[in-house]
Design a protein that fits this description.
The chain is mainly alpha-helical. Helices cover about 50% and strands about 5% of the residues.
């Protein structure tokens, strides 16, 4: 039988002693504490057993907690442990879930509620990938409650994901890259922001935009010609930032990009740690930080109008559609095309597993069908297929003669019937 009440040895402030504390969860899932104010193990166990009996006999009455309160409790417990953006996604998914099934007690959620939620999302036009993401968030919230002992089983455990077709990812061809870089070099879009160096670095390293914008000069190893992508701590000069999937890694720099970065560093005033954030923007961010108006949602895109400026560059370059992230896909596809293994690409791209690398980037390898066609032709080297072609041609000719004979016979029979003659055998 599952133990409802647990004992915890809580350290005292002096760090040399401890006292027992009772911990249990009510029916609403809220955690309750009771300090026993002593360190007697036998006495503490008797008190724990007494509280256990009270709970099992229903002497401790609690009010069922509904989904909105459950959400508030879950997010408060996980704050600081996961990204703020992830918590925002969880909240949005749960609030939509409540709109569909109602604000019922969380312990009454069942599989049928998950299925109803999926259907409601489909009816409102959500894509399967979007719905799967919402379901993952809901499952995660209930899984956390399961780990804390608030639930016996995850109610959405057996909700199946929707099938999602393979996506075709956009990559830039060589001509598009040349035009984009040329526009970035010759125009003053976003000045003093260095769009040309940012784009060239992305094309050669497959770094994400957030990784580039949160890059500091200390991350660049000029001697080894590489960039070390690392998280940032909250300090006087830098703000806290974490890498997607928490994957620290190093990527190589080619000589041309290294020289551009050296020149760019020489042109920057002293005291500015970030590579691509202009000094005037950095000063504004520092003022916002002091006022407490700088939040996690700003950290991945600290430059204003980033997307609008990039779209303007694409427009002037004659590129109809695209995203900055497509530079990353372009670079990775080139890595594959030039013989890098899947494991090497996974490490340098910062993917947390092989599935991401395989599903998202193997499909965009340039000339994949042509390479497969060439490889298949090599299999037939030294094998004569002339006889097979002649046999196939002869077979088709015989079949055509047979079909013609049957057609002529059918026409003859119809003619005889018209003249009231006996059909041929």
């Amino acid at each position: 039988m599952k133990q409802l009440v647990k004992l915890w040895k809580r350290p005292c402030k002096n760090g040399q002693e401890f006292k027992y504390v009772l911990i249990w969860y009510g029916e609403q899932g809220k955690e309750h504490w009771k300090a026993l104010k002593h360190a007697d193990a036998h006495r503490a166990e008797r008190q724990r057993a007494q509280k256990e009996r009270e709970l099992r006999m229903g002497l401790v009455e609690t009010k069922p907690v509904k989904l909105r309160e459950f959400l508030k409790d879950c997010t408060s417990r996980t704050k600081g442990q996961i990204k703020e953006g992830t918590i925002t996604e969880y909240k949005a998914a749960m609030n939509q879930f409540i709109e569909v099934i109602g604000n019922i007690p969380y312990q009454k959620v069942r599989l049928c509620h998950g299925e109803r939620f999926i259907q409601a999302c489909l009816d409102t036009g959500n894509r399967p990938a979007t719905i799967n993401k919402k379901i993952r968030g809901l499952k995660r919230l209930f899984q956390l409650a399961l780990r804390r002992g608030q639930l016996e089983e995850n109610p959405l455990k057996f909700v199946k994901k929707l099938r999602v077709g393979k996506q075709k990812f956009r990559t830039y061809d060589n001509n598009e890259c040349k035009r984009i870089v040329k526009v970035a070099q010759q125009t003053k879009i976003g000045a003093p922001f260095k769009w040309d160096i940012l784009i060239l670095t992305a094309l050669c390293t497959a770094m994400r935009s957030a990784e580039l914008l949160n890059l500091v000069w200390e991350d660049i190893d000029f001697e080894k010609s590489q960039i070390n992508i690392t998280p940032k701590e909250e300090t006087e000069t830098t703000w806290q930032w974490t890498i997607k999937d928490m994957e620290q890694r190093s990527v190589p720099l080619i000589e041309e990009i290294l020289q551009l970065l050296i020149q760019h560093q020489a042109e920057q005033p002293n005291g500015y740690p970030y590579v691509f954030i202009p000094p005037n923007r950095y000063d504004v961010i520092q003022k916002l930080r002091k006022k407490g108006k700088w939040f996690e949602r700003h950290q991945n895109r600290p430059v204003n109008n980033f997307r609008r400026q990039f779209n303007l560059i694409l427009s002037k370059a004659g590129v109809k559609q695209g995203k900055f992230h497509d530079f990353r896909r372009t670079c990775i596809s080139k890595w594959f095309a030039n013989g890098l293994s899947e494991f090497d690409v996974m490490n340098m791209a910062g993917h947390s597993n092989f599935e991401t690398t395989r599903n998202y980037y193997l499909a965009v390898r340039e000339g994949l069908l042509d390479k497969a066609r060439t490889a298949s032709s090599h299999v037939l080297q030294g094998i004569s297929i002339a006889n097979s072609l002649q046999l196939a041609s002869s077979s088709r000719e015989k079949k055509n003669v047979s079909l013609q004979h049957l057609a002529n016979k059918e026409l003859t029979n119809h003619a005889r019937q018209d003249l009231n003659l006996r059909p041929t055998d």
